[in-house]
Amino acid sequence: MDRINVGFIGCGGIAQYHFSHFDKMLDKARIAAACDLIPERAQKTAERYPGANVYTDYREMFKKEKLDAVYICVQPGAHNGMEFCAIEKGVNIFCQKPMTLDMSYAKKVWAGIKKKKLISAVGLQCRYSDSWDFIKGFIGRKIASNDIAMVSAYRIGGFPMVWWWRRFEQSGGQAVEQTIHNFDILRWIFGEVKQVSSVRRRGVIRDIEDHNSDDASSTLITFKNGIIGTFNTGCFGGSEGDTTAYYRNGNIKYSLFGNYTVTEPNRTITGKPTNDAGQECDETFVDAVRGDIDRSEILSPYDDAMKTLAFVFAINKSMDANGAPVEPEI
Ligand SMILES: NC(=O)c1ccc[n+]([C@@H]2O[C@H](COP(=O)([O-])OP(=O)(O)OC[C@H]3O[C@@H](n4cnc5c(N)ncnc54)[C@H](O)[C@@H]3O)[C@@H](O)[C@H]2O)c1
Fold it and tell me: Is residue 240 part of a domain?
């Protein structure tokens, strides 16, 4: 098959990450169009991929281009209709997380994707580490035998210095924008969430102008299978975190990218991924669009990512209600 034509809407930070993966599969896909409200960013993309057409208006791009797939890499608060243009034109969609800050928008997008039978993927690339096979299998057996008592997790991240990140109405806040990866892995491994209760902390980061978002939050989680958990997260510095699941006389600890340690009285098992999750995530989407693999190999299609979106939106809703229990809702 010829190379597929891919367009990018948003040529900022995360687009560069995707480009580094496309550079390794240029025999399968070409960047045919680059669109950004900042013309220099689209232009720079075209310099990297000669032949790519440059746009500042995605409507114009969809009018003129014949694309097989589009990567939507704008900030969470900037999803203003590009998905619907793609759907109308029958273009497959890779969308960055969080796909929107408005669940009713996400529902309309999914309805369109489904109606047109398009292929979709969301940038929850951590799922692609190959060590999850062990971790999911190990924890899955303990869940099946009702032996997992509780989960304890934390993530203390840095503060991304893009302008929109500090604005709650643009980013959705730290739990939604940043820790969404961890919450996604949590529901992927432990099952669907029954309810959350969450409180926020603001006012710790005082040296960033215009910052009106959360510095930290603590969330109590109850899963539908009865497992309980806590998640503490913040963006006031450093880059660390892990999740530990406790069962009788043992525990398994894993990191976001799938390093793990099982600790029991008479044994310790450790392991780590052997692949590049980000590369795998992009290649899986491209291969599915090309028809080289079945779309079911995409680990985070749009409708599944909506369930994670509902999880993190419930956390925000609970924070707004001073920790009142909230059920994730699509
Ligand atoms: N999966 C991950 O690990 C990961 C990591 C970082 C960021 N992200 C996500 O990627 C998205 C973008 O983040 P970023 O760090 O690249 O931000 P960024 O600010 O660096 O880039 C966003 C770009 O989108 C452009 N843009 C906004 N609205 C547009 C529109 N209507 N038409 C065309 N271009 C438009 C902006 O001009 C900007 O260049 C966010 O949703 C973020 O959460 C995901």
Answer: yes
